[in-house]
Specification:
The protein is mainly β and about 100 residues long. The protein has one domain (about 5-100): Thrombin, subunit H (Beta Barrel). The chain has helices spanning about 5-10, 40-50; strands spanning about 20-25, 30-40, 60-65, 75-80, 80-90, 95-100. Strands 1-2-3-6-5-4 form a six-stranded antiparallel β-barrel. The radius of gyration is 14 Å and the shape is globular.
Length: about 100
Amino acid sequence: MPVETEADRRSFFNTAEYGREATYTPPGGPARTIAILDDWQALDLLTDGVAGIEADSLKVSALADDVPDTSRDARLMLSGVTYKVARAHPDGTGFVVLTLVEA
């Protein structure tokens, strides 16, 4: 029996407080808006092009219920930049960590 409920997990992704909206597109499916948690500094480095600093991937967390069909062909758009899902790491408790690379 899980310690927290679906509503408890979803509260961590509240875009007014912690989360960020992203557009998730599963392979062959329609795009939909989901909430994610990201490493804010890494995202800023990737999207703002800070001189002299590069990153080749970004990790974000999502609710497993929001991305049940995750595969390498899935896409995630953050701050106008489209990323490809390189790996999905479900943790068995209702969360998944997505490793993204620029598409």
